[in-house]
Specification:
Layout lengths: L1 H53 L4 H14 L3 E8 L12 E6 L15 H13 L3 E2 L13 E7 L2 E7 L1 H9 L10 E7 L9 E4 L10 E7 L2 E9 L10 H43 L5 H35 L3 E6 L4 E4 L1 H7 L18 H11 L3 H11 L6 E6 L5 E12 L6 E10 L1 H15 L9 H17 L3 E9 L2 H8 L1 H16 L7 E6 L2 E9 L2 H16 L2 E3 L2 E3 L3 E8 L6 H17 L4 E4 L14 H10 L3 E10 L5 E12 L3 E3 L1 H11 L2 H21 L7 E4 L2 H5 L3 H12 L6 E6 H6 L1 H14 L2 E7 L6 H4 L6 E4 L1 H4 L6 H16 L3 E4 L5 H9 L4 E2 L8 E2 H16 L9
Parallel strand pairs: 20-21, 23-25, 25-26, 26-27, 27-28, 28-29, 29-30
Antiparallel strand pairs: 1-2, 1-5, 3-4, 4-5, 6-7, 6-9, 8-9, 10-11, 10-14, 12-13, 13-14, 15-17, 15-20, 16-17, 18-19, 22-23, 22-30, 22-31, 23-24
Helix pairs in contact: 1-4, 1-5, 1-10, 1-25, 2-25, 5-6, 8-9, 12-13, 18-20, 20-22
Bound molecules: ligand C2E.
Ligand C2E binds next to β23, α17, α18 and β27.
Keywords: Signal
Protein name: EAL domain-containing protein
Organism: Denitromonas halophila
Length: 891
């Protein structure tokens, strides 16, 4: 029983480990497929939007733009733009006008709906809903090979993208992996209409193992795919490993040997008993049969010698088995004193046999806490408690015990204990313990448990573990009539970090923030991440409301020092809502809801503070000076400064513009990032006077450099939404130009894509007015919201700036490269110039040059510089020019 139990245990451990590894890998592969499908949908939106704005354009333009998408996504076989034949209603024919294809089909004139009813229905649905609609898998007989088509409305046209499904699956699920290294097989079922008879749209042919499977659903373009991953036997071996089989064989061999030994001893005892009996009889007739007695004694001596030899042979065999066993075998007498301790036990517990045999008992190796638990549970002490625990369980189930090695190491083990019985009277003569090391299985279990209960990014408890902890804390609070606090915490304007520095920086910031939270709470408190930038803190055994307020204050304080994230000093502030049990609710849901509501009050009250549910008045007097107050003071004390960054013509290397960037060096707190203080300035309206100062200072500086003949290019100044809403904006611009003497065409106003989309009508009016003044207009951060392309044509825009989050990864992320290249091609068809922001490497510059991008800005040429440094740089450049040296962009 012990052998089979240990075997089953080892098998379970192996399966758990293998399955956890397989699940993680399958999730990652499917994630890549999901990301790629989403990228294609994004690009289809982008292309459709472009056609909506610019019309069908020329075949050459279409091929150029589509070509960039097809180069990146080789599974896209064709992209076609078709007209809608409105001669019947609803329209039934969609003849292709422009086609970019890798094959001979489709051709211009081909009907996009010709591939059967399913294609016809998909085109109709796309026209009707305005969404992207995917077809089911069109049969391999279809003219362009096996695959699906994505249809969408593009202005007056229909856009069709033809994807080869096997290639899509192979190139994403396997992402360049050698076929021999593939460790699982995928099957994709299309469950859009009837999950019970879902057609199979893809299947790997590398053989599968349906013993276990991992399943995820991907929903896109009105389709629902079920992706089933099954491990291949070759890589995720679920058959028992050879070592486990070896262990099992050894176990059975020991059992067999023990049986032989018992049989042998039994026979020997019987023989001796007979001998004694006959000897007694013989003694009564001493004189008579002396000669016979001698002979009998001699025979007995001979037999005993033979028995001892046999015993020696079997002892040698027993030793061999004890030595080769992979798991610990420990034999004790009835008092628990160890009599046998095999080499596997020595290495498992880090202790030589001669230090243990006849000296110690197995309980010396059981973790004290585990031992205490057993004693409590059984009501017995010491070895008796261990035996009782083992007996309490089914004999085939080993007990899991935490052992402690001689070196202090923790060794989780599965232990089975069985009594050794005397063959004659059934009396217990000792105990046999067999223990296998389950460290690996425990680690796999812990990992799986961890994944289910902890947020993988911050390692904080997740929503599900929070639920469990909050429920049990509430139960305890109810029982002992205590208070409990729930803090709902949201990071102010965290989205800005993600948008401006990218998700990696956002993730790094969340991790750093979580680290600081830990220092603000007691051991019994729970800090959990609810997702995004939302956290919940549970404070059990709360002494008073004041205690909750103190924790909130500690958190505000802890976050006040800037974070160093990927070379950026970022400051992030929290808004915290507090709900107290039992005053503000008695269930977990109510308390969380109320804390959430209080958090919104905290946001309304200017962020970076905390509010109690229903009692906003209690914290009206904020103890901290808010960022807004500091900003107001900064404006009075003139703590702002402008930095300037050059904009470089990619073809010639000339400086074709400068951008003014606002900087704030707080004398108490040090430099504050614009991403942190500008949103606050915008919300509070302070950006209006600050922005006016920026405009005036930048224009005065540009004119100073112009008049010194250092540089004569447009100065770009960022405008925020609040400035735009001021009716006086154009008057201020006109006044500044007049006062500083800067010609209007040497000023470029930069506004963001989101600002334009917020209120297109107002924007159009203001921009028309600005154009009448003669200033240039640039669109900043372009690419972060595709839909805005449709608006661009309505505005008098001179230049687009591609957001630096796209440029950052163009060398490594084909999707970002495709977007950047497509934006450039599209902008050029609209006759708008393109500047790439955040160019940091020569590789990026080379790619941009290849796509005919007009200009760039970024650390590759220069960081934003204070006016004095920029002055020195411009002087140096002028000197170089006078000496006939090449320009900076080329050097
Ligand atoms: N990683 C990287 N970053 C680069 C590189 N080259 C430039 N940058 C940074 O990218 C930002 C470009 O400014 P933006 O997109 O207009 O984004 C600006 C703009 O939206 C806003 N801002 C800055 N100055 C003003 C201003 O005077 N008024 C208003 N309303 N907003 C401003 O704050 C944002 C952030 O400004 P900054 O922190 O100065 O950050 C600047 C600049 O320092 C590069 O190669 N790599």
């Amino acid at each position: 029983a012990a052998t089979e139990a240990v075997y089953k245990n080892a098998l379970d451990a192996q399966r758990d480990r293998v399955y956890a590894e397989f699940q993680l890998a399958a999730g990652q592969h499917i994630g890549t497929l999901r990301k790629r499908v989403e990228a294609v949908l994004d690009l289809q939106h982008l292309l459709g939007d472009h056609v909506d704005v610019a019309g069908a354009g020329s075949a050459k333009d279409f091929e150029q733009i589509s070509g960039s998408l097809m180069r990146v996504h080789t599974f896209i076989k064709a992209i076609a733009l078709a007209d809608v034949d409105n001669s019947v209603t609803p329209p039934l024919r969609f003849p292709a006008r422009h086609v970019a294809t890798r094959a001979a089909w489709p051709r211009p004139g081909t009907d996009l709906a010709m591939e059967g009813l399913q294609a016809q229905e998909a085109v109709q649905a796309a026209l009707r809903t305005g969404a992207i609609i995917a077809t089911p898998l069109l049969s391999p007989e279809a003219e362009n090979g096996e695959g699906i088509r994505l249809f969408s409305r593009a202005g007056q046209h229909v856009l069709g993208i033809y994807m080869h499904l096997s290639e899509l699956a192979q190139s994403t699920l396997w992402a360049g992996m050698d076929p021999d290294a593939r460790n699982m097989a995928f099957t994709i079922l299309d469950t859009t209409t009837d999950p019970r008879s879902a057609p199979e749209v893809y299947r790997d042919t590398i053989g599968d193992n349906f013993e276990t499977a991992y399943v995820e659903v991907i929903e896109f373009a009105a389709r629902r795919w079920l992706i089933i991953a099954t491990p291949t036997p070759k890589h995720f071996e679920l058959a028992p490993a050879a070592s486990i089989e070896r262990q099992r064989a050894t176990g059975w061999a020991i059992t067999l040997l023990a049986a032989l030994l018992v049989a042998f001893l039994q026979t020997r005892n019987a023989v001796i008993r007979d001998r004694v009996r006959s000897s007694t009889a013989e003694l009564a007739e001493t004189n008579r049969i002396l000669a016979d007695t001698n002979a009998t004694l001699q025979a007995e001596v001979a037999q005993r010698t033979a028995s001892e030899a046999a015993l020696r042979t079997s002892t040698t065999l027993q030793q061999a088995i004890l030595h080769s066993a992979d798991y610990a075998i420990v034999l004790t007498d009835t008092d628990g004193i160890v009599r046998v301790f095999n080499p596997a036990a020595e290495s498992m517990l880090g202790c030589a046999a001669d230090l243990v045999v006849d000296k110690r008992t197995p309980i010396d190796f059981i973790n004290t806490a585990a031992m205490a638990r057993m004693e409590r549970a059984t009501g017995k002490r010491g070895f008796a408690a261990v035996l009782e625990t083992a007996r309490g369980l089914a004999t085939s189930e080993p007990v899991e015990l935490e052992l402690t090695g001689a070196d202090g190491r923790n060794v989780p083990a599965a232990v089975s204990i069985s009594p050794l019985l005397d063959a004659q009277d059934g009396r217990i003569t000792g105990y046999l313990a067999i223990a296998s090391d389950i460290t690996h299985r425990k680690a796999a279990e812990t990992r799986i448990l961890h994944l289910a209960h902890f947020d993988p990014l911050t390692e904080l408890p997740n929503r599900s573990l929070l639920g469990v902890r909050l429920e049990s804390a509430l139960e305890a609070a109810g029982r002992f009539e205590q208070s409990l606090g729930v803090l709902f915490l949201d990071l102010d304007r965290f989205k800005n970090v993600n948008d401006s520095l990218g998700h990696q920086a956002g993730d790094a910031l969340l991790k750093a923030v979580s680290g600081r939270f830990q220092h603000c709470v007691r051991e019994q408190d729970t800090v959990a991440r609810m997702g995004g930038d939302e956290f919940i803190v549970v404070l059990p055994e709360l002494e008073s409301r004041q205690h909750a307020a103190e924790v909130a204050e500690r958190i505000v304080e802890a976050l006040s020092a800037p974070f160093d994230i990927k070379g950026h000093r970022l400051t992030v502030t929290p808004s915290i809502g507090i709900a107290i049990y039992p005053d503000d609710g008695s269930t977990a849901d109510t308390l969380i809801q109320h804390a959430d509501a209080a958090m919104y009050h905290a946001k309304d009250a200017g962020r970076n503070n905390y509010q109690f549910y229903e009692s906003r008045l209690s914290t009206l007097v904020s103890t901290r000076l808010t960022l807004e107050n500091r900003l107001r003071r900064a404006l009075e004390r003139q703590e702002f400064e402008l930095y300037y960054q050059p904009q470089v013509d990619i073809a010639s290397g000339d400086f074709i513009g400068l951008e003014a960037m606002l900087r704030w060096n707080d004398p108490d707190e040090g430099p504050v990032e614009p991403d942190v203080f500008i949103p606050v300035a915008e919300d509070s309206g302070l950006i209006v006077p600050i922005g006016a100062w920026v405009l005036r200072t930048a224009c005065a500086q540009a004119e100073a450099w112009r008049s010194k003949h250092l540089i004569d290019v447009p100065m770009a100044v960022n405008l925020s939404a609040r400035q735009f809403d001021e009716a006086s904006l154009l008057d201020i611009v006109a006044d500044v130009l007049e006062d500083t003497g800067l010609p209007a065409d040497r000023l470029e106003l930069e506004l963001t894509e989101s600002l334009i989309m917020r209120n297109p009508e107002l924007t159009a009016d203001v921009l028309d007015g600005a154009k009448r003044l003669g200033v240039m207009i640039g669109v900043d951060d372009f690419g972060t919201g595709y839909s805005s392309l449709a608006y661009l044509k309505r505005f008098p825009i001179d230049r687009l700036k591609i957001d630096r989050s796209f440029i950052a990864d163009i060398e490594t992320e084909p999707d970002d490269a495709a977007i950047a290249e497509t934006i450039i091609a599209m902008a050029h068809t609209l006759r708008i110039q393109v500047l790439a922001e955040g160019v940091e490497t020569v590789g990026q510059l080379r790619m941009l040059r290849g796509w005919a991008c007009d200009a760039y800005q970024g650390y590759l040429c220069s960081r934003p510089l204070p006016a004095d440094d920029m002055n020195a740089l411009l002087k140096g450049l002028r000197a170089a020019r006078l000496c006939g040296l090449p320009d900076v962009g080329h050097t």
